[in-house]
Amino acid sequence: MDIFVILIGLFVALAILIPLLEKYQSKIGLNSATKYSKYIWPLVMMSLVIQLIYVLMY
């Protein structure tokens, strides 16, 4: 059940972030957006590992 809450939260965040990034892309620039994108995959992987440990412990 918790995984569904996490997935729904991620989809809601993406649904909010994508239009905001498209709206303000000219202000922040593509270089700035790609600068932050290198942090997204490590954070996603870290959250998956933490969630896996959480599921295995309980």
Molecular structure report:
- With 58 residues, this protein is mostly helical.
- The protein has 3 helices and no strands.
- It starts with a helix and ends with a helix.
- The relative contact order is 0.10.
- The mean pLDDT is 78.
Briefly summarize what is shown.
Helices cover 91% and strands 0% of the residues. The chain is an all-alpha fold.
Notable characteristics:
mainly alpha, 3 helices
What's the overall average pLDDT, rounded? 78
- What's the total count of β strands? 0
Largest sheet: none
User: Taking Cα atoms only, what radius of gyration do you get, to the nearest Å?
Assistant: 15 Å
The span between the termini is 13 Å
Share of residues in helices = over 70%
Number of helices, where a helix is a run of at least 4 consecutive DSSP H or I residues = 3
Secondary-structure element order, N to C: HHH
Low-confidence segments: none
Structural class: mainly alpha
> What oligomeric assembly is this protein in?
single chain
Strand content: under 5%
Q: What does the overall shape look like? A: elongated
